[in-house]
């Protein structure tokens, strides 16, 4: 007997989260729907952070920015509530992690500006669709991520190194990986480096700064993409009085389909 | 005897402007170099206008945004001075044109934020390269532009209709026109409408709201692109205390080559 498993859509995943029934990472959930990193900052830092994102579109591609005090992302997920619809949040004060919480209802302020930043899940699906295997996909394990010697273009008080994610790609699939991810600039787009990790300041691909190490397969090349951890690293380095983010891997699932954010 | 005419590069055009030797429109100058619309607003409106551009990337694609008080576009034209390197400027107070001037030296303030917004000259070159004729190209005459019934996504105090430019494209070149301009999202990118003008609220293609009318050739289709006049129309509607722009057609010529802003 054939059992058809219908994948939940973005709205359904958010409904489970809001009801307190889903507190785990969102990788592999609602396949085909765009997921987003969250960064929330007070209004007096919002212009500078928006400018930082505009100047660094590879690590910080903006999906949506909400007006001060607003918590409904009307463009990417009408009806959603940014304060309750992510499985887990982190609250940083002066650059230090001060709490991990299940919702933001008691932390909300009228001067908070929410930034939704593209997440690599969308382009990873494009890689999978092109026959490129990703061993961490759909597990609760994360890809390898590294701080690089590539300096982001500063804006106001925000500055810092670009963080990248690394995936092992079979040599004969590298060109296809560039093509497949180039279609999705809103979720980091094309790689920023192919090959020798030392050239971008990565000393040991087996010792990632974030996520976990993955062994190389035979004939595989390390390929590096700008990573959505960059804004957190940069914002943490600038020590804003308050910054709220998603907990790693616990993303905001939008109503946008991957093809909605494709460039071409 | 063959005489080779070397086209001036961006920096040379700006040098002529700064020396007061060039006060005419910049269409056709420094071919292959990206030109930009200019909008300058006080700091207290800058976040909302930046957000407006982020939400409306087709009419308002950002090439560069400068920090408050800064007048050197370090990313797109190092060494340039936004206050002196455009042939002509317009100063609007409370939404009304108050002056047209040759430079901004006596108007400059420490709280002014400069926005450089992509201009259609780059994608027009792509159309020409693909064998599509544009009768206004390189003349001091302008393309036809229209206010539409398409409402821009508002941000803070900024809201208003999308302005579009229209070009007659031979029926058998319409697909190529979409492909050629899709490569350049930083300069308005793909068309927003093909065919019946009434569908986007344009009553008479022979009576443009800006620029001038151009007669249709045999077998030609009207094709509409989002237009860099939109931010001026929108900002004028919101009546900011001060807004400074380039004078129509008198653009800022950057050091970026067209291919530098190509998506793929």
List descriptors.
homodimer; 264 residues; alpha+beta; PSTPO5379-like; PSTPO5379-like fold; 2 domains; seven-stranded antiparallel sheet; four-stranded antiparallel sheet; 5 helices
Write a brief structural summary:
The structure is a homodimer of 264-residue chains. Chain A is an alpha+beta fold and 264 residues long. The first copy, chain A, has 5 helices and 11 strands.
Give a verbal description of the structure:
Two copies of one chain form a homodimer. The first copy, chain A, has 264 residues and is α+β, with helices and mostly antiparallel strands. Chain A has two domains: 10-119 and 239-261, PSTPO5379-like; 121-230, PSTPO5379-like domain (PSTPO5379-like fold), CATH 3.30.2040.10. Chain A is 19% helix and 26% strand. Chain A contains five helices and eleven strands; from the N terminus they run αβαββββαββαββαββ. The first copy, chain A, has helices spanning 10-18, 43-55, 121-129, 174-182, 230-238, and strands at residues 33-42, 62-65, 89-93, 96-101, 112-118, 144-151, 161-170, 193-194, 220-226, 243-246, 252-257. In chain A, strands 1, 2, 3, 4, 5, 10 and 11 form a seven-stranded antiparallel beta sheet that branches. In chain A, strands 6-7-9-8 form a four-stranded antiparallel beta sheet, covered by helices on one side. In chain A, helix 3 (121-129) crosses helix 4. Chain A is globular, with a radius of gyration of 18 Å. The relative contact order of chain A is 0.25. The mean pLDDT of chain A is 93. Chains A and B meet through helix 2 of A and helix 2 of B.
């Amino acid at each position: 007997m054939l059992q058809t498993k219908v994948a939940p859509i973005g709205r359904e995943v958010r409904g489970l989260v809001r009801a307190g029934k889903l507190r785990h990472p969102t990788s592999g959930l609602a396949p085909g729907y765009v997921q987003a990193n969250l960064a929330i900052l007070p209004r007096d830092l919002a212009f500078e952070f928006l400018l930082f994102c505009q100047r660094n579109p590879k690590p910080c591609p903006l999906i949506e920015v909400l007006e001060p005090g607003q918590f409904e992302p009307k463009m990417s997920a009408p009806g959603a509530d940014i304060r309750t619809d992510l499985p887990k949040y982190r609250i940083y004060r002066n650059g230090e992690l001060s709490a991990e919480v299940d919702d933001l209802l008691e932390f909300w302020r009228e001067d908070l500006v929410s930034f939704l930043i593209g997440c690599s899940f969308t382009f990873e699906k494009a890689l999978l669709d092109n026959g490129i295997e990703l061993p961490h996909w759909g597990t609760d394990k994360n890809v390898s991520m590294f701080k690089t010697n590539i300096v982001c273009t500063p804006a106001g008080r925000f500055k810092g190194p670009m963080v990248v994610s690394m995936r092992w790609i079979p040599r004969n699939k590298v060109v296809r990986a560039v093509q497949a991810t180039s279609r999705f600039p809103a979720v980091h787009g094309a790689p920023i480096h192919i090959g020798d990790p030392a050239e971008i300041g990565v000393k040991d691909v087996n010792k990632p700064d974030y996520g976990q190490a993955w062994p190389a397969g035979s004939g595989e090349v390390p390929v590096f993409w700008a990573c959505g951890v960059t804004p957190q690293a940069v914002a943490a380095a600038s020590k804003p009085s308050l910054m709220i983010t998603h907990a790693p891997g616990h993303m905001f699932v939008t109503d946008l389909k991957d093809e909605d954010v494709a460039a071409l």
